[in-house]
Amino acid sequence: MTKIGKRGLLGLAGAALAAPAFAQGAFPTRTITMVVPFAAGGPTDTVARLIAQAMSTNLGQTVVVENVGGAGGTLGAQRTAQARPDGYNVLMHHIGMATIPTLYRRLAYDPINGFETIGLVTEVPMTLVGRNALPAQNMQELVALVKREGEKLNYANAGIGAASHLCGLLLMQAMGTRMTTVPYRGTGPAMNDLLAGTVDLMCDQTTNTTEQIKAGGIRAFAVTTSDRLESLPDLPTAAQGGLPGFEVSVWHGLYAPKGTPAPIITRLNQALVAALQDPNVGTRFAALGTAPVPVARATPAAHREFWQADIAKWRPLIQAAGQYAD
Ligand code: MLT
């Protein structure tokens, strides 16, 4: 039998206190918090609430969404990175997790090693939309307007690092001009100003724009995918509108704090996969121009591999643009 000295016993006790207790099969026994790093009513919030509701059913415990907006999605990410790694704190984030490590050089948390991956959720196309009274009826007229008016036009986004910021960066590079950007705590609030006509343009996810486009509340110019969408068949692609290569879609993923025990990650991933296979989630996602990722892409390992590759993809693009958040 191995003799454990006093230091050994103290060490074992310390380790037991540090790691959250996890009795196999006991998790979860109470409400789980899902942080959304943008304001309520936006596309990330929409994806999160659909997934949270379906996960609650599978877990038998409530998954409550908490909106922690600000600083391009970094404040919400920080909240989760610094939370107890006990399975009761998760984060629904998106492509910003791939760009924030380069865009933000002085964060209060580790934007890469501060998280465990639970699984990918969905990839959402983006749409270039404007206020209804904007003096441009189509993409060709919009390109001419932006090139003529430049910084007189206001472009809404959800802060540096947000998908709407990245889409705007690519759009202005493609058009060879700059507009004045107006940051919001999420594109949910930004949509209100677009509908009111107090901001001119925005590039946002179909989960936030589809219903407003169909209701005639805003004007749609293009979708940022290589093919048109079944949910918006009359909307041309950016390439068809004269901006070839202007393609970007926003992936979403679920995370937990670093150090969350593997059996808990496995249980959370099981609930996520059940949510992705939930018919109601599939139907709602389809109506909003997107779809759950295939289950093979929703494993923790596949998510981490995809995320790491996207960090490496965006880093040189951001460094070439030379625009950082701090
Ligand atoms: C983004 O621009 O990253 C998102 O649309 C923000 C949000 O979900 O509100």
From TrEMBL:
Signal as UniProt keyword: yes
Domain of life the protein comes from: Bacteria
Protein name as catalogued: Tripartite tricarboxylate transporter substrate-binding protein
Entry annotated with the keyword Lipoprotein: no
Family classification: Belongs to the UPF0065 (bug) family.
Keywords of the record: Signal
Signal peptide start and end residues: 1-23
